[in-house]
Write a structure and sequence with these properties.
Chains A, B, C, D: Keywords: DNA-binding, Transcription, Transcription regulation. Four copies of one chain form a homotetramer. With 213 residues, chain A is an all-alpha fold. Chain A contains nine helices and no strands. Chain A folds into two domains: 54 residues, Orthogonal Bundle (Arc Repressor Mutant, subunit A), CATH 1.10.10; 140 residues, Tetracycline Repressor, domain 2, CATH 1.10.357. Chains C and D meet through helix 6, helix 7, helix 8 and helix 9 of C and helix 6, helix 7, helix 8 and helix 9 of D. Chain B binds a DNA duplex (21 and 21 nucleotides) through helix 1 and helix 3.
Chain lengths: 213, 213, 213, 213
DNA sequence: AATGAATGAGAGTTCATTCAT
DNA sequence: CATGAATGAACTCTCATTCAT
C-alpha cells in the first residue's frame, strides 16, 4: 500500500542527481578543478552524503561516465537496427540522428571528457573505446561495406572513410565546448549546415568537373 | 677567450628545458595533475629553480604554450606563402606538410592541450584562436575561394568545407594522444592513408556513379 | 531536549580558542614567526581546521586584533561615562582602572602587537587609531580641558599633557612584554607604584620649592 | 705610497653599507619581512657577497643592532660627563640632547626594533638592556638623587621618576614610527613642544593652586 | 673576493576523505 | 542515513644559504 514516500523517492533519485551534478561541473571546470563538495552542493546534499553513494571522487567520475555512456549505447543499439533503404540516405539519417542525440546533451560532453581524462583513467578509456568508439565504427563501416558491395559506393578504404565521416561532427563538438563561450570563437556555421555540406561533399566531391581519372 | 662557463651554458638552456619538461608532463597527465616539482625534476633541477624562470605554474604553462605555438606560427607563415599551382594539389601539399610538422611533435600536442585547458585559460585560448585557428582557417578558406573563382571547384560553402578538411587530421591527433597508448586503441590506419583517402573522397566523392543531381 | 552535542559546543568555542591561541603565540614570537600550524595546535585542532574559521593567516590576525579591541572598546565606553567628581581624582581613577583592565590581559598585549605590526597592516592600524587611540586621547583631553576651565588645573597644553599621562603606562606595558622575561630585565617597580608617582608628580611637580615663575 | 685604491676603499666600507641597508629595510618592513637579497641589493652588492661579511641573516641583524647601539653608547657616555650646574636645567639639556641625537636617526629606530625583536633575540636584548637601558636609567637616576640630596627636588621615588621622564620621549618615537605614515595618525605636536610641556609639568605640577600638603 | 644560479627545508593553503553526532 | 566539523596528505611557492665560476 504505502507508495514510496517523498523521502524514499528522493533517496532513489540521489545517485542520478549526484551523477548529473558531477557531469555539469566536470564539463564546466574539468575533473581536477571540480571539488567533491561542489558536486554534493549542486545535488542538494552535504559533502558526506556523496560518499555514501560513491566511495571516492574517482569512482564518482567513473560511475558518471559509465552511466551516461550506457544510456547512449543502449539507445544507439536500438536505433541502429532500424535503418532501411539506400545506404547514402541511411548514412545521412544516422549522422543527423547522432547529432540530435549527442550534439546537445550529456553523451556529447562525455565524449569530450573521455578524451581529456583518458590517460588518467585507462580502464575507463578502454571501456569507452570498446563500448562506444569501436561499435560506432563497426556500424558505419558496415554500412559503407554494404554500399560498396552493392555497387552504390566506390571502393573506398573503410577505416579512413569512417574516420572522415565521424571526425567533423566530433571535432565540432569539442571545439564548441572549448572555445564556443566567452567571445573566444563564434562559430557562425550550424551543425546542420556542416552535416549538409559534409554529405554533399562526400557524395559529389569537390570538383566541378565530373570526369573521373 | 673566456668561453661560456658550463653554469652559464646551462642557464641559457634552462627555460627551454623547463618548457619541454612541462609540455611532456602536461601532455601525459594534464595540467592539474602535473606537479611543479615533477617538471623541475624532469628538467634536472630542483623545485625552487623552476621559480627563478617562471613566477608560477600558470605562467610556466602559458609560456610553454606560447613558445610552442610561436615557433609553429612563424614556420607556417613562412611556408604558406610558397604554394603554387592548381588548388587541389596545393591543398594536398598543405595538408601533408601540416601533418609532417604538427602530427609528430610539440605543436600537435599543444593543440590537444589547448582544447583541454581552453576554459581554464581564456586569454591563452583567445591567443590560440587568433593566432592559430583563425589564420589557418583563413588560409585554407582562401584557397577554396580561389578554386571556386577559377572554376576548379564547385560552389561549396567555405566555412563548412574548411572544417571538413581540418577536422579529420585534428581528430586523429587528439585520438591518438588520448587512446593510442596502453593497448587501448590500435589505430591501424596511418595518417598518410587517411590523408590520401580524404583527398580522394573530396575530389571524387563517395558515389560510384558520376552523374550529378 | 536535544542538548547541544559536544561537537557543536566545541565548534561554537573554536573561533575564540583560535583567536586566543593566535594572540598568545603572536605576542610570544611575533606575527611572522608564528606558524599557522602552531596556532592550530595550541587551539587543539589540526592545521586545516583553522582555515574553516579564518580564510588566511592575515585574516586570523585581523580578527584576533579586532575581537580583542572590540571588547576593550565596549567596556571602556561604558566606564568612561560613569566618572564623577574633581578631575584630579577622576584622572587617577581612570588610569588605575585602565591599568587594571589593560595592564594584565589581552587588550594590553594587543596594543603592543598593533605597534609592531602597524606598518604591515595599515587598515588595521587605522582602525586601531580611530577606535582606540583617538577616543582615549579625546576622553583624557576632555577631562583636562574641564579641569582647566574650572580653574582646577593650570593652562597646560592639552595634547602634550595627554601624551605625558598615557605614555608611561603604555611604555611600561611594552617594556615588560619585551624585556620582562628570561632574566633580561627585572623591573623592580610595580605599575601601582608608577601610577602613584605619576599622579604625585603631575599634581605637585618635582620641585621642593613651591614658588612659581 | 699607494694610497687605498677605490676597490679597497669600497671593500672597507662594505660592512657599514650592509648594516645601513639592513637597518633601513628592517625599520621599514620588520626583520622577518626583510629578505637578505634586498639588503644586499640596497647595499649595491650581490646576494652572496653579504654572506662573506655576515654568516647569516641573524648575525647580520645582531651586528646591525650592536653597531648602532655602540656608537650611541660611546657618544652618550662622552656627553654625560660634561653636564654642570643645577640639576633641573641639566635634566632638560640631557633630554633635549637625547632627542636631537636619537629622535631622528638610527639609534632611535634601533630602540623600536629592539622592542619588537627582543623575544626573538634574547642575548641581544640582554646586551641592549645592559648597555643602553640600564646605563641611561642610572644616569638619570643619579641626577635625580643628586637633586634630592641637594634639596632641589622633593623626595620622589627614583625608579618611577626615571621611567616618567623617559617614557614620553620613547613612546613618541615608537608611535611616530608605527602610525606616523600613510595618513594613519597625524601627530600635531612636535617633540620640542612635548619636551617643554614635560619639563614645565614636572617642575611646576599640574595644579593651579600652589599649596603643598 | 664577488657573483648569482641552484638548492631544499619550510610555510601557507586546499580539499578528498572520515566519523561523531 | 545524513550531516558537516575535523583531519592531514599533498601541493604551490618563498627565501636563507651554498658553491661553482
Amino acid at each position: 500500500m504505502a507508495s514510496t514516500a517523498p523521502r524514499q523517492r528522493r533517496k532513489d533519485a540521489r545517485p542520478q542527481e549526484l551523477l548529473d551534478a558531477a557531469l555539469a561541473l566536470i564539463v564546466e571546470k574539468g575533473f581536477a578543478a571540480t571539488r567533491s563538495e561542489e558536486v554534493a552542493a549542486r545535488a542538494g546534499v552535504a559533502k558526506g552524503t556523496l560518499y555514501r553513494y560513491y566511495p571516492s571522487k574517482d569512482e564518482l567520475f567513473k560511475a558518471m561516465v559509465r552511466e551516461n555512456l550506457s544510456m547512449h549505447i543502449a539507445e544507439s543499439a536500438a536505433q541502429a537496427a532500424q535503418y532501411q533503404g539506400p545506404i547514402a540516405g541511411l548514412l545521412q539519417q544516422m549522422m543527423q540522428a547522432w547529432w540530435a542525440k549527442v550534439g546537445h546533451g550529456n553523451a556529447g560532453v562525455v565524449c569530450k571528457i573521455m578524451m581529456i581524462e583518458a590517460r588518467n583513467f585507462p580502464e575507463l578509456a578502454k571501456f569507452y573505446v570498446d563500448e562506444v568508439i569501436n561499435p560506432s565504427k563497426r556500424l558505419i563501416g558496415g554500412l559503407i561495406e554494404r554500399g560498396i558491395a552493392s555497387g552504390e559506393f566506390r571502393a573506398v578504404p573503410i577505416e579512413a572513410t569512417v574516420h572522415l565521416l565521424i571526425a567533423p561532427m566530433l571535432h565540432m563538438l569539442l571545439h564548441e565546448h572549448s572555445f564556443g563561450e566567452h567571445d573566444i570563437c563564434h562559430e557562425t556555421m550550424t551543425a546542420e549546415e556542416l552535416l549538409d555540406a559534409q554529405m554533399a561533399l562526400l557524395l559529389h566531391g569537390l570538383l566541378a568537373d565530373s570526369s573521373r581519372t
